[in-house]
Design a protein that fits this description.
Elements lengths: L2 E5 L5 H13 L4 E6 L3 H6 L2 E5 L7 H19 L10 H4 L4
Parallel strand pairs: 1-2, 2-3
């Protein structure tokens, strides 16, 4: 099972890289979401999805988009109905 890391260029980038290296040391596959132009992340992760460089307060919004696409395409590949998720009625009530 791959580990997905959100690792933009911010104040905790080096800690994220350290965590990625820990997963890689245990032979775990890594998918990372990082800032465009970051070559260090490409050296430690198996796959990197890049987002544009932006201020720190916008970074969570930009990194959420590839995560949503990853979730969507994973669900489709597994044969899940993405338009009518199973058990949705149990968690959402409409009056």
């Amino acid at each position: 099972m791959p580990s997905v890391f959100i690792a933009p260029d911010d104040s905790v980038f080096d800690k994220n890289v350290s965590n990625i290296e820990e997963v890689k040391a245990r032979k775990g596959p890594v998918i990372a979401i990082g800032t465009e132009g970051n070559t260090k992340l490409a050296k430690v992760a198996d796959d990197v999805l890049y987002v544009p460089l932006a201020p720190d307060f916008l970074s969570p919004i930009l990194t959420a988009i590839p995560l949503q696409l990853l979730a969507y395409h994973t669900a489709v590949a597994l044969g899940c109905d993405v338009d009518k998720p199973r058990n949705l009625a149990k968690s959402v009530t409409v009056e």
